[in-house]
Amino acid sequence: MLVIIDYGMGNLRSILNKLQRLGANARISSNIADLEEADRLILPGVGHFKAGMDNIRARNLLDPLNKKVLKEGTPILGICLGMQLFSRHSEEGNATGLGWLDAETVKFPLGDLKIPHMGWNSLENRSPCVLFSDLPTDAEFYFVHSYHVKPSPSSNARASTTTYGISFTSAVCQKNIYGTQFHPEKSHQNGMTILKNFLEKT
Amino acid sequence: MFRPRVMPCLLLKDKGLVKTVKFKDPNYLGDPINAVWIYNKNEADELIFLDITATKEKRTPPIELIHKISDESFMPVAVGGGIRDIDTISRLLQAGVEKAVINTFAAENPSFIAQASREFGSQSIVAAIDVKTNGKGNYEVFTHAGTKKTGLDPVAHARNMELHGAGEIFINSIDRDGTMQGYDLALIRKVTDAVTVPVIASGGAGSLQDIARAIREGHANAAAAGSLFVYHGKRRAVLINFPNRRELSTLFKTS
């Protein structure tokens, strides 16, 4: 069973709906027993980094998540804020993250471009990460974010970059930890391919 | 490569899809879900659904239909019409849409935009502004589906919306609606240059070139079109359509 972790950050229905179309046995839950049973996890999320971490703690999900992901090696996909929470720290709310990736979450530099980065963009420098199997090289995805994950120079987590004024990390793959800054559930067939890969190849 | 968003703007009346001209004479086009399927197939960037009689009928957009629309959409969806409270936005977002579009009530009570963007994040809140040239020849904001004057200047109102936390501004020309004569570029440019949040141009698109102009000359960040994406040919036969990725990339490369 796949569990979409409900920690009160944004709408999870679209993700559930798209996973069910792929035939996944998935449910939305913040119940620790469900979490322990899960063979795959998705950490979605739209909103404020600090609020996200506070909500994870308030629901007593921090220890069960660490156990599932770090000890048991359960595959987890973080989407948007979910992926950012994998980092050590964010400038958004000056808050500590889950710390699974050697990375910081930082704000886009102010420049000529509008923030948030909102719209369709492509991936560059794609690694052989399984999330990208069967994906055309020019595939575009839907982004909406004002912060991005910046892995430390010694980290190998970066799986792709995307250019919006600067080049930033748009996906991560590190062992059982996967993340996309974009929204695969809102990115047409290419997004469905990413979700399918997470279901079938991780 | 990042490119401007191009989005069908779809009008709902009695849960059916309609298209107006200058906000009048709604022409029934068909079933909205069928349109969603076609835009999925053609991979539109985003969809905007506006319930054009919700404000007048003092109700919210039909939640069950919005649920269905959202479930069927493989792209982001924004929904507007009659939104006057936080609970309605909450129900729309729970139904699976990304953004709530607020028009009349934002003009009546700008602090509602502040409240909504605090609650759901700016990226979920779109302030929509309908503009008509008034008797004196000036741009003026109209509400209640274009039937009520406000005395507001669109540039000042757009700035105010941004100030209150709107994540995007949807600027629509009532005079151009359904005419397919091109966007009101002067209006769009005035508003876009006055705010830092993304602006969606709307009203008057008759060709892909018009869209390119809204971006290049109007400085808009995104362009919405109704007639262009629901009609075909001079006689306006109903045909739900959307340009393919190659056409869009070429459009913005050459423009």
Secondary structure elements and pairings:
The complex is a heterodimer of chains A (202) and B (255).
Chain A: E1 2-5, H1 13-21, E2 26-29, H2 32-37, E3 40-43, H3 49-58, H4 62-71, E4 76-79, H5 81-85, E5 89-90, E6 95-96, E7 103-107, E8 117-122, E9 140-145, E10 147-151, E11 158-164, E12 166-174, E13 177-180, H6 188-201
Parallel strand pairs in A: 1-2, 1-3, 3-4, 4-13, 5-7
Antiparallel strand pairs in A: 5-6, 7-10, 8-9, 11-12, 12-13
Chain B: E1 5-13, E2 16-21, E3 24-30, H1 32-41, E4 47-51, H2 63-72, E5 77-80, H3 86-94, E6 99-102, H4 104-108, H5 111-120, E7 125-133, E8 139-143, E9 148-149, H6 154-163, E10 168-173, H7 185-194, E11 199-202, H8 208-216, E12 222-225, H9 227-230, E13 231-232, E14 237-238, H10 245-254
Parallel strand pairs in B: 1-4, 1-12, 4-5, 5-6, 6-7, 7-10, 10-11, 11-12
Antiparallel strand pairs in B: 1-2, 2-3, 7-8, 8-9, 13-14
Helix pairs in contact in B: 6-7
Write up what this structure looks like.
The complex is a heterodimer of chains A (202) and B (255). Chain A has a single domain, classed as Rossmann fold (3-Layer(aba) Sandwich), CATH 3.40.50.880. In chain A, 27% of the residues lie in helices and 31% in strands. Chain A has six helices and 13 strands. Chain B contains ten helices and 14 strands. An eight-stranded parallel beta barrel of chain B has the order 1-4-5-6-7-10-11-12, surrounded by seven helices. Chain B has a two-stranded antiparallel ribbon with strand order 13-14. In chain B, helix 6 packs parallel to helix 7 (185-194). The longest helix of chain B is centred in the N-terminal third of the chain and has 10 residues, at 32-41. In chain B, 54% of the residues are buried. The A-B interface holds A 10-11, 13-14, 17-18, 46-48, 114, 116-122, 140, 142, 144, 163-164, 183, 186-189, 191-192 and B 1-5, 40, 43, 45-46, 70-71, 73-76, 93-98, 121, 123-124, 167-168, 196-198, 221-222, 245.
